[in-house]
Amino acid sequence: MRAAGTPDVVVHGLRKSYGTVRAVADVSFEVERGEVLGILGPNGSGKTTTVECLQGLRRPDGGDLTVLGLDPRTQVRQLRRLIGSQLQDSALPDRLRVVEAVRLFASVGEGRADVDALLADWGLAAKRSAAFGTLSGGQRQRLFIALALVNRPRLVFLDEMTTGLDPEARREAWRLIARLRELGTTVVLVTHFLDEAERLCDRLVVVRDGAVVAAGTPAELVAAHGGGVTATFTADLDDAELGALPGVTSVGRRGRAYEVRGDAAALLHLGHLLVGRGTVPTDLRVHQPTLEDAYLALVGAERR
Amino acid sequence: MRPWGESARTELWLLVREPTTVVFALALPAVFVLVLGSVFGDTPDQGGDVFRGVGGATYYTPAYIALAAASVGLIILPTHLAGYRERGVLRRVRGAGIPVGAVLFGQVTVATVLSLLGGALVVATAIPTIGPDTADDVLGVVVTAVVGALAFALVGLALGAALPTARAAQGAGILVWFVVFMVGGAGPPEAVLPDAMATVGDWTPLRPLVTALQDVWFGPGWNLRLLGVLGAVGLAGAAVAGWRLSRD
């Protein structure tokens, strides 16, 4: 049995190749109970392979994996009763009706699922007898999540669940994940949408070329890799004086136009200096680093 | 056992909702037997050099029971299964903890039942209209039809596991079905086929089923050798399907 406080997912040194193509070279991370962990990375970086190995859908070439205290390589049957899964690029037969899908997926659980309550819960009661092929993108995603949750799993894998959805359907999917968090379900969310990751995830793991290049909360990643704050303005100042301000990392100037980079403290000191000189530039612009800046710094260097 | 029963029930509804099922498994064999029985009548073939000594209607009725099984195994099941693989349905099912074996079991069960239903429709259409002789050995017909339906369902599983898309499976299936239909005993009788075509027909899985069914309907009786051949064909299909699906 699992000891109290043991993470729900522990991956260490995961490796997986398809023939001569190395999909995952070295992936390690942990997911705590009740946490929403995002796995970010460009296409082909090994995100999907990683979560498929964790679900026992692919056999890794090497590494240690523990999911809910079980080994996905040898205890896949027990594991699948405890997890829910929304897989990338997989569908249901067009003629399968919503209620039939729920009944089928519920058949592996212990006890009888309350199909009607589940459908009502996920806004699908009116679509009970609708064929899968007639559902909208948002309705399909709701059904997939309902199917992933039908047996009340403790851990859910959601792989690119909002890809291909319109903005309204994406927002709806986000609300659903927020509900999962409230229910205390542990979620592993694979995505390449940075706004989604920033909004939904407690922590992020950034994967590039099959290896983890950074991990932390969205704020930690932005602070560590976002490149700092950039202030631009026009004024008559001394470059050396600006460069000496605490927290400033660089000063650029073209004529009277300045670009000052630094951390949050640098911004305060710059403001103090400007006000002290009686200079209030009307064209002052401040660019705060975003998760996108951090992400591009981490994965984009060789791709641009 | 719940996933197995639920899968079989789901597969039944899905296959029944496919229009190709209705056309190829149920309608075509019944229409063909009606047309050919009407054309050739049921006057016994005295020399035995065309219709094995019976009339056309009696000759074709067991042949079209066999054709229903071939339609399900060569067209319907492969298209259905290849579509599942193409769209990632099997991955989703596997990810949900539903054994893929339960889905395949459901498909084979439903395909076998559909084949038998198609065969029953052939008999129900033929007897009141074209007047074939009734079967000498009803139990033999039922057992042979079940073995044949199961063998073709397993061949269908192998094709569905090997072909990459539903469209490829349907295209290849219809092509193979047509060749098998023409030379395997459900088209021109074996006795009138050129030697080369008859030889090709001998190597199709339809010929043993047509001959075994005719043997119990109007011929010498149970053909255990051909039942063995059909059993071997089915096992080979299951082995190919198992090998191929384990690599997905």
Automatic annotation (TrEMBL), chain A:
Membrane topology: Peripheral membrane protein
Major place of residence: membrane
Superkingdom assignment: Bacteria
UniProt-annotated location(s): Cell membrane
Protein name: ABC transporter ATP-binding protein
GO molecular function: ATP binding
PROSITE patterns, A to Z: ABC_TRANSPORTER_1 (PS00211), ABC_TRANSPORTER_2 (PS50893)
Record domain ABC transporter: where: 9-234
Transmembrane segments: none
Keywords on record: Antibiotic resistance, ATP-binding, Nucleotide-binding, Transport
Pfam families xref list: ABC_tran (PF00005)
SMART domains: AAA
Automatic annotation (TrEMBL), chain B:
Domain of life: Bacteria
Transmembrane regions: 21-41, 61-84, 96-127, 139-161, 168-187, 226-245
Primary location: membrane
Keywords: Antibiotic resistance, Membrane, Transmembrane, Transmembrane helix
Keyword flag Cytoplasm: no
InterPro entries xref list: ABC-2_transporter, ABC2_TM, ABC_2_transport
Location within or outside the cell: Membrane
Membrane topology, as annotated: Multi-pass membrane protein
Pfam families, sorted: ABC2_membrane
Domain ABC-2 type transporter transmembrane: 10-216
PANTHER family: DOXORUBICIN RESISTANCE ABC TRANSPORTER PERMEASE PROTEIN DRRC-RELATED, TRANSPORT PERMEASE PROTEIN
Protein name: ABC transporter permease
